Amino acid sequence: MYIFPVFKDYYLLNVFSIAVIYAVYAASWDFLSGFTGKENFGHAAFIAIGGYMIGFISSVYPIKPFLSIPLAAVVSAIFGILIGLPTLKLKGPYFALATLAVATIFEKLSISLSDLTGGEEGIYGIEFLTQGQISSFYFVLTFAVLAILIMYILGKSNFGLILKSLRSDEDAARALGIKINFYKISAFAVSSMFAGIAGSIVAHFYGYIGPDIVYPLSLNSIIMAVVGGIGGIVPAALGGFFLTFISEMLSEFGDWNQLLYTVVLILSTLFLPSGIFNYLGAKIRTIGSKAGEK
Amino acid sequence: MALLDINNLYKKFGGLVATNNITFSVEKGERVGILGPNGAGKTTIFNQVSGFIKPDGGEIIFNGENIIGKSPEFIAKKGIVRTFQIVKPFKGMNVYDNLKVATLSPKMKEEIKNETERKKWIEYIIDICELKNVAYTMTDLLPQGYLKKLEVAKSLAIKPKVVLLDEPFAGLTHSEIEPISKVIIKANEVSGTSIVLIEHRLKEFMQLVERVIAIDYGEKIAEGTPEEIVKNKKVIESYLGKGGEEIVNS
Fold first, then answer.
1. Rounded to 10 degrees, what is the CA torsion of B33, B174, B124, B50?
2. Greater model confidence, A290 or A97
3. Domain that holds residue B81
4. Residue of B52, B71, B102 lying closest to A176 (CB–CB)
């Protein structure tokens, strides 16, 4: 089904795999925040739930991916609901601050509870995703395609349409009788579930989970999704993929590659506020319809 | 017993009594207007009946059930829908999808069984509300006149028993008002939907409603047919000013 990537070395394959997972991070952020307009500034907390849970279990029992993925899905979805219940009543910046606080608490806990979490060092020795690099890549790719496809279909469905209605006006939706809390919590659960699964897959992929591969993602997920374009899952996922890919390719420049994120963010918000891939998508559609007229 | 009975509705904001024991009723298929100067408490009545503000006292009996203090979602499902003075279209989607959201509400989910029926119903609403030429236009691009129409269309899309229209004509020219006014009458006459209207455009208001409730400082000061209301001394003092009759008869 997939075109076999003609990678000369495993390094590129590695970068590709990570970029694909980051695409899921961005897409899952989009599913809650891009659709409902509830900006989640603590997406890393949901990634951490999946990743660290596998880490904890692995330190006592070598859990395999086929078991840990459904487990991560259930636990992170429940966690999303628990966090969503009190916070989704908050409006605008207060919701953003509350989610930021959740992620900050998680970050502090994973550093200070070092007996359990390994502190800054993180947890090593998690079972690898599969035995080989190539099979791991296909595993990750399959998961990402499925996850993005499911979120895309949900987003296009009537469910997604209601989520979008909440973005512009919750009161207008309530006046029509739409149970806004149910929809917001469900969106939170779906977003959190996919973030959690992706987190657990990353843990298996590296055989490691630690603060360095989790907590920068609160901000980076937002940047990836916004640069790619929100409200359509695929543009956000593409944003996640390409930003990660490029930034990994530039990793030899050391810390300078972090600048890439911010520069791209500034440029894209200035010149393409609807997102690079939303813009390209619209362009292609107009060209397509013009060609159709002829 | 009327369809909607509002008894001694009382609401206080700090030291200000916003609605002071307001009592009125709305019959099935009736068109009732609420008249009063700015700040009299008209929208506050709508906010309480539709569940957006919890009343401090009184009763709201709808179809024999006391719905006071219930959530907007609950009340909308029962069949009371309100519009907003400042239009609230769903942005980032077109007119068709705006109406589709309305058809996805719990009330319509029970009535519409499949997507074909949904499409038919939306197209019917688009048709009677004269939104056909903008059906696939993003609401972000629509002028005020269409947005006002859409606001009414969205409320009618859930087949309500009572529609609370909060200044549907505000900011519109005469030619823009007419189609909306026609839609309201059509919904009322064809489906027997009761209409409660707040409006400052007096001429259109008086032509549309059959009965007027006049309020001032949160209290009901008069009730009657438009002809009676314009002659009422209290109403003239508080709202119409001299020459109120001419407005109606013009």
1. -30
2. A97
3. 4-86+162-249
4. B102
Question: Does A1 score more than 50 pLDDT?
Answer: no
- Residue B193 pLDDT greater than 60, yes or no: yes
Query: In chain A, what residues touch B72 (CB-CB under 8 Å)?
Result: 171, 174-175, 177
- B15 in a structural domain: yes
The mean-pLDDT minimum among A4-18, A53-67, A109-123, B87-101 falls in A4-18
- Is B73–A158 a contact, with Cβ atoms under 8 angstroms apart? no
Nearest to B81 among A158, A176, A180 (CB): A176
Look at residue A278 and give its three-state secondary structure: helix
pLDDT tens, position by position, B141-175: 999 889 999 999 999 999 999 999 999 998 888 88
Best of A30, A89, A176 to substitute, by most chain B Cβ atoms within 10 angstroms, is: A176
Please give the pLDDT value at position B248.
59
Is B53 domain-assigned? Answer: yes
Query: Does B113 reside within a domain?
Result: no
A238: which residues sit within 8 A by CB, 6+ positions away?
A23, A228, A276, A277
Interface of B with A (CB under 8 A): 50, 52, 71-77, 81-84, 88-93, 97-98, 100-102, 104-107, 154-155, 157-158
B146 with B89: CB under 8 angstroms?
no
What's the CATH code of the domain at B24? 3.40.50.300
State ipTM: 0.89
Any domain includes B118: no
pLDDT band per the 50, 70, 90 thresholds, residue A7? low
Q: Which residues pair with A225 in a beta bridge?
A: none
What would the pLDDT profile of A161-211 be if each residue is shown by its tens digit?
A: 999 999 988 999 999 999 999 999 999 999 999 999 999 999 999 999 999
User: What domain count does chain B have?
Assistant: 1
Q: Which long-range contacts (CB under 8 A, 24 or more apart) does A156-161 make?
A: A158/B100, A158/B104, A159/A183, A159/A186, A160/A35, A161/B93, A161/B97, A161/B100, A161/B101, A161/B104
Q: Closest approach of chain B CAs to the CA of A182, in angstroms? A: 11
Query: Which domains, from first to last, does chain A contain?
Result: 10-293 (1.10.3470)
